[in-house]
Design a protein that fits this description.
mainly alpha, 22 helices
């Protein structure tokens, strides 16, 4: 036992007792673990080479043994026998011959091609077999893309980017342009509001949805598999990445918005998820830091992707500052010039992508509109007591004779939305308690699921609610565990979970608004369940 303690670096065994961990010992261990002497060429602790021969499998599990070593030095274990039992259990449960002994390469982060093709084929099959491209004819095909469909029809008919509702209401910036332009392309090729046009758009949505699967794979591979985290006894090189990628490829909740909805969720989620992948590449998560032309290309691609994301779903831009700060933080702390030059290039590319939309708005709307113009109207609808914290549908009535719509025509889009924003702010100031009550409701609905009517299929609704809430809970628990264990990239995920829902807490919420976070939820859910361990009987703490 003394030999084992010596090889573990425990100079004197500290029995388990309250207050056994001193501040001085924590500081000494922090200095030791941060020093270059603590690591050898393959990234393992140098002290691993001193373990007895029966612990050979542990040399490929340094992240686990380091935790055991720290716990032994801090007096967590009740006896030296408990340390030995814990080490032997790791040897048995995670054998050395099943763990790759070479560090990860770039090829490891690339998802198998079959992952994308299965995801894409499954979505196309669901559209074709389920006939989901047959859109119900309601309110003159308004369900076909909603406001985006109306703008697309106006474009095809030669009236320009205008008329987001029923009737002619003039030029608009109600929605950013990417999805209306996709719908306009489908109308131009296959006819306005035809089934062929719907199939084309759903196929495009399915393409973007399937492209998320390789991004999910790379996020999991860089954050978890490259560091040997949650491997258990897998013989695969990237078990967390494989599970997460296949979960996204075939899980019904990941398919639904691509095969049922004619809206921007799949495109926005794809663009946003790939911005996270490039952020991990820029930070060097899971690999050695790179410089040179490749890194400049990554910064340019990052700026372009954020620009396209803003032109698809502007609400996601709330995560851009935190993601950028996370990427440059290590260099920023060292006051390196490269901490500024890369983001500057990304900002220039972002502005270049956004500039056609900005110039169009200045020319046709006679005002600078960064992304979209409808915030004031949406905020006003959220403050109405009749909506009970859940404004649903359009912010304006579809009947052109409605007084509210007539007021919109009379004032114009910008003046109308500015008036509604002022009225909403006045309502919030007059009754802040009601506003915060609705905000809390929307917070719960975002993570627990928006309630639906139970008139026809109550069991289906209960199942949907259970599935939605389960994924939220698994994702949040996985995030909490990753943050607690300081998994690389966990801070970036945490910022996205914190920031992205904020606009929906304050204005309105629907189940589809959680979709951009669902790739991360898939990764973190897999990590959570792969991190489970059997209950121990010797009182040892988990690694």
């Amino acid at each position: 036992m003394e030999h084992l303690a010596r090889n573990l670096g425990v100079d004197a065994f500290v029995p388990h007792r309250k207050g056994a961990v001193t501040q001085e010992r924590k500081q000494n261990d922090a200095r030791e673990c941060s020093s270059e002497k603590c690591r050898n060429a393959d990234g393992s602790g140098a002290w691993l080479g001193l373990l007895p021969r029966q612990f050979d499998p542990l040399r490929d599990r340094p992240h686990l043994v380091l935790r055991i070593r720290e716990q032994a030095r801090y007096g967590i274990f009740p006896s030296m026998q408990a340390i030995r039992n814990r080490l032997m259990r790791v040897c048995v449960s995670e054998p050395c011959d099943r763990v790759p002994q070479t560090p990860p390469s770039n090829l490891r982060f690339r998802a198998p091609r079959i992952l994308f093709w299965v995801a894409f084929a499954l979505r196309i099959a669901c559209i074709a077999i389920g006939h989901t491209y047959r859109i119900r004819v309601l309110s003159d095909h308004f369900n076909f893309g909603f406001e985006a469909g109306r703008i697309a029809r106006s474009l095809v008919e030669g009236h320009g980017y205008a008329n987001p509702f029923n009737g002619a209401s003039g030029t608009t910036a109600w929605l950013p342009p990417i999805y209306p332009l996709l719908l306009a392309l489908s109308f131009k090729l296959f006819g306005v509001y035809t089934n062929a046009a719907a199939f084309f758009v759903m196929a495009a949505d399915s393409l973007f949805s399937a492209l998320i699967a390789p991004a999910v794979y790379e996020i999991a591979a860089r954050c978890f598999d490259a560091n040997g985290i949650a491997r258990r006894a897998s013989a695969k090189a990237a078990p967390v990445a494989l599970w997460a990628g296949w979960l996204w490829a075939v899980y019904p909740a990941a398919l639904q918005y691509a095969i049922h909805w004619l809206w921007e969720m799949s495109i926005s989620t794809c663009l946003f998820t790939w911005t996270l992948v490039i952020a991990l590449r820029l930070r060097g998560t899971g690999e050695d830091e790179r410089d040179g032309a490749a890194q400049w290309g990554r910064w340019a691609a990052w700026g372009a992707l954020w620009g396209l994301t803003a032109l698809s779903n502007a609400s996601l831009l709330i995560g851009l500052p935190a993601a950028g700060l996370w990427v440059i933080w290590p260099r920023l702390r060292k006051l390196q010039l490269r901490a500024v030059t890369g983001p500057a290039l990304a900002a220039l590319v972002f502005a270049a992508v956004m500039s056609p939309w900005w110039m169009r708005n200045v020319r046709t709307m006679h005002a600078f509109i960064a992304t979209r113009s409808n915030f004031g109207a949406e905020l006003y609808e959220s403050t109405l007591p009749s909506h009970d914290a859940l404004p649903y549908g359009t912010a304006l009535p579809l009947w052109t004779g409605d007084p509210k719509f007539q007021l919109f025509l009379h004032m114009g889009e910008l003046r109308y939305t500015e008036m509604r924003k002022e009225q909403a702010i006045a309502r919030i100031r007059a009754n802040p308690g009601y506003f915060w009550h609705c905000t809390l409701d929307r917070f719960l609905f975002f993570w627990d699921g928006v309630p639906h009517a139970l008139e026809n299929h109550p069991m289906r609704e209960y199942g949907r609610q259970l599935s939605y809430a389960f994924l939220s809970l698994a994702g949040l628990m996985g995030l909490a565990l990753a943050l607690r264990r300081r998994v690389p990239g966990a801070a970036l995920m945490g910022w996205m979970f914190l920031l992205l829902p904020l606009p929906y807490y304050l204005v309105t919420v629907q189940a589809r608004f959680r979709h951009p976070l669902e790739p991360l939820i898939a990764v973190l859910s897999v990590y959570l369940f792969r991190s489970t361990e059997p209950r121990r009987r010797d009182g040892a703490s988990p690694t």
